[in-house]
């Protein structure tokens, strides 16, 4: 069974090479069954010691812990439920490049240029619409840029773009559309939309009808749809002259100079396997497999194919501290 809370005694009790320490930003309820399954699957007895963190800022908290421990790493494997902060660790030289056990033709935006991380089991950035408030599908918003449309002033919602997938989304758009134009657009969105603390809060506001629509993630959107709420999920920016829908993967990486690299490598390959992607696709969050060998189509996908945004996550993470400070200045006013 996955040992929770054992991180409190790190440094006091030596651990064998068969053990592996995981810092996971994926919710405990989703990550723990997979880590437990890995323990059962290996011939050599292996104990997975897991550290989870609080909602909304959990990725930042875990990254800060890794940074604090950089001289003597405790974490062997970082399982991030997004990508940008994993790339930050890559750029700081804290991740171990390796060859990943993935199929040939793995999407280039889903694996590090130096092999230091691998992306899998993505979420998409989608528009969730309250169908009681917007009854005609012809009137649904179809683009992220509709958050600036004055006809939706006070009726649309977004999360503060300072953490998680929303922060990643606009860092990607900065690379796509330019630095200043994206800052200008964020300022317009802040003035036009209701800004909430997180994507979950956006989905709940739309579900309750306090917002007509909002920008959120597929895992939060599908929960409201599964509950039978009056909502519809729109994959935005699908026209030929638009950028496509952004998908943001889970990412997994081994820490450089970690205490248990052998066990961590075995777990890393298990986590990015089609079996794990299928498990996440079938689960409550309906995550989107990257592998073509995955067998289970997530129920959140529409009937028609989705055109995905072409992304360079490594470029999006450049000058992150400066960018984050500029975004904070907009959203702290």
TrEMBL record:
It holds the Pfam family SBP_bac_6. It comes from the Bacteria. Keywords: Signal. PANTHER family: SLL0237 PROTEIN, THIAMINE-BINDING PERIPLASMIC PROTEIN-RELATED. This is Putative binding protein component of ABC iron transporter. It comes from Novipirellula artificiosorum.
């Amino acid at each position: 069974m996955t040992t929770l809370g054992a991180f409190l005694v790190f440094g006091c009790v030596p651990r064998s090479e068969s053990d592996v320490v995981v810092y996971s930003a994926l919710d405990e309820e989703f990550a723990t069954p997979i880590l437990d399954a890995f323990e059962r699957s290996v011939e050599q007895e292996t104990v997975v010691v897991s550290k989870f963190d609080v909602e909304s800022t959990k990725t930042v908290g875990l990254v800060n812990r890794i940074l604090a421990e950089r001289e003597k790493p405790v974490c062997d494997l970082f399982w991030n439920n997004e990508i940008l902060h994993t790339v930050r660790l890559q750029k700081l030289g804290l991740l171990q490049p390796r060859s990943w056990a993935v199929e040939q033709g793995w999407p280039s935006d889903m694996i590090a240029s130096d092999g230091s991380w691998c992306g899998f089991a993505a979420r998409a950035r989608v528009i969730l619409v309250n169908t009681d408030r917007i009854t005609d599908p012809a009137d649904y918003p179809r683009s992220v840029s509709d958050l600036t449309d004055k006809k939706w002033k006070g009726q649309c919602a977004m999360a503060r773009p300072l953490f998680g997938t929303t922060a990643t989304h606009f860092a990607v758009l900065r690379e796509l559309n330019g630095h200043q134009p994206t800052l200008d657009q964020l300022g317009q969105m802040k003035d036009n939309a209701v800004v909430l603390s997180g994507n979950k809060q956006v989905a709940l506001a739309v579900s309750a009808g306090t917002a007509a629509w909002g920008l959120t993630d597929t895992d939060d959107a599908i929960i409201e749809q599964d509950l039978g709420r009056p909502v519809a999920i729109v994959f935005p920016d699908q026209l030929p002259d638009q950028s496509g829908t952004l998908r943001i993967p889970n990412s997994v990486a081994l820490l450089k100079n970690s205490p248990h690299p052998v066990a961590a490598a075995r777990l890393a390959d298990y986590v990015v396997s089609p079996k794990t992607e299928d498990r996440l696709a079938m689960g409550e969050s309906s995550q989107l497999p990257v592998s073509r060998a995955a067998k289970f189509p997530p129920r959140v996908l529409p009937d028609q194919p989705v055109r995905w945004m072409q992304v360079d996550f490594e470029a999006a993470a450049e000058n992150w501290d400066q960018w984050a400070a500029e975004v904070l200045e907009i959203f702290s006013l």
